[in-house]
Fold:
Amino acid sequence: AGTNAGTWEVTLANDPENRDLRGVWATSDIDAWAIGNKGALLHLVGKKWQLDQIAGTYMKLKDFAAMWGPPTKMAGSEAFAVGAEGAGVRYDATTQKWQDFRAETAADLRHVVALADGSVVACGTAGTVIKAADVAAPFYDLAAPVTGSDVFDCMASGNDLWIAGAGGVVGRLGSAGWVIE
Structure:
C-alpha cells in the first residue's frame, strides 16, 4: 500500500505463495522492495510488484524481519535486510542485486540500520546488538548491557545508536558509551 494525496493505494504483491512480508524499503512511489518469510523478495517497478531472487546461495529461503535503505538509490549505495538466525542480505545499487552477507550470529535479528559513518548495525534477540565497520567488514558485538532482553528496534542519529526492546528497555550508544534507561 502507498499514499497518493493522503489516500491509501492497496496493491497485492505478485507472490504465488502469499508469503508474509516483514520489511519494506522505498526510494519513490514507483520503486520499492519488500522482503519476508521463506526468502520472499519483491520489487515494485512502476505500479507492479515482481518476484525477485536473492543472488547469493545461503539466504534464499531464510525468514527476514526487517529492511533498511537510504531514501534514494545512488551508485554504490547499500540497503540491508536481516532476519532469523542471523540471516542477512544487502542490496548493491551498482549491480542492482541482493547478495548474502554474514551477520556472524545465531540470534534472530529484528532490525538493521546504517550509521552516518557508513557502518551497519543489526539488533535482535537476547540483547544482540552487532556492528560492522562497512558492508565488507565482519560484525562484532557492541556489548549492549541488556543481555536477556530482546532488542526490537535500532535507530541512528548521526553516529549515535538508539535501541528499544522488551521490558521497556531504551538505550543509546554514543561517544561516552552505553546509557540504558
The CA atoms of residues 60 and 87 lie 10 Å apart. The mean pLDDT is 88.
